[in-house]
Amino acid sequence: KGAARSIDDLPLAKAALVQREAAAREEARRRRKGIGERSAEAVLQSIREEVMKREGSLSGLARVFKMRDKDGSGALNQLELFEALKAYGIHSVSLGEVANIVKSCDKDASGSLDLDEFIVLLRGGLNKRRKWIVERAFAVLNTDGDGRISLEEVKSKYDASGHPDVIDGKKSEDEVLLSFLSKLSGGRMGDKGYISLKDFMEYYGEISSSIIEDAKFEAVVRKAWNLSKAKMIAGGSKEGEAVLKMVRAETSKRRGGIRGLARVFKMRDTDKSGALDIDEFYECLLAYGIRISEEKAAVLFTMVDRGGDGVVSYDELLAGLRGGLSERRKAVVKEAFSVLDADGSGEITPQEALQKYDVSRHPKVVA
């Protein structure tokens, strides 16, 4: 009989022995070279990076996994997973490290790793800001509100020029467009002829793992569909205005008003950068007693983040919550201007302003 080439060709007892021997040899090799085993998360990140070098998505790796799943169980044991990674071209992960991944992710202690769960784990998922961005983009594209986007709509609106692989020079716009359509029509769309929000989320979940900054991820999504920040917000304008109105009302009920919220802002700004990220922003609202869900906080965050840089500055917060001047405030400003404009020319010279302006009462000095 010829030598077995895969764990699948061996009886269970023999397979277990081969698995232990292979693990021992691998461990010995790494000890000789002074290579320590990495944490499960470090190994997962290494696999993500290797995958991105090849296709820029997890689709290819998922196909290899399914080919190795001979019994159709939807799961692989540690040796099968190790062999699948090697078959895909990932040789930097040891058998011991694969065993650590299986152990840390094996919820039912079966000794195997569910393939769908593993792909989700590798993808890393979308954080709440990115999830909101994708939801907003889908809402704008889904013009009739039926919860689906047709293939024809996708073809007519998708712009590949902002894709990370195009920017990095790895692929042309045509190649990215063909890959995008192939994934949708061959995988997520199937025979449906349309994509749902879930499909949209899964696609951007794959891209998300290769983009570190939230602001860059938002730029990629907006560029792909030619969506301005205003249009993204307009996709949920009613919701956004409702959230903004609620927060303004809640803030006005507090004794400190907007200034009180501004003081909490400064306390939450622990690195003294003058800005808060989305998590700090949410904590700031809660700390001031404004009960709001993470989803609604994300809507508000995007509305007041006028610079679109993924953080909200002190001035952006105040401008966003105060909004425009009320009629009463407009009247006060007009009265002040008329006092300064002594000759009624409709203009105030810098000298006139400097003579009469009392900087000690400026909000930032008072605060």
From TrEMBL:
Gene3D superfamilies found in the cross-reference section: EF-hand
GO MF, one annotated term: calcium ion binding
UniProt keyword Calcium present: yes
Matching InterPro entries: Ca-bind, EF-hand-dom_pair, EF_Hand_1_Ca_BS, EF_hand_dom
The EF-hand domain, residue ranges: 56-91, 93-128, 134-164, 256-291, 292-327, 328-363
Pfam family, one: EF-hand_7
Keywords attached to this entry: Calcium, Metal-binding, Repeat
UniProt keyword Secreted present: no
UniProt protein name: EF-hand domain-containing protein
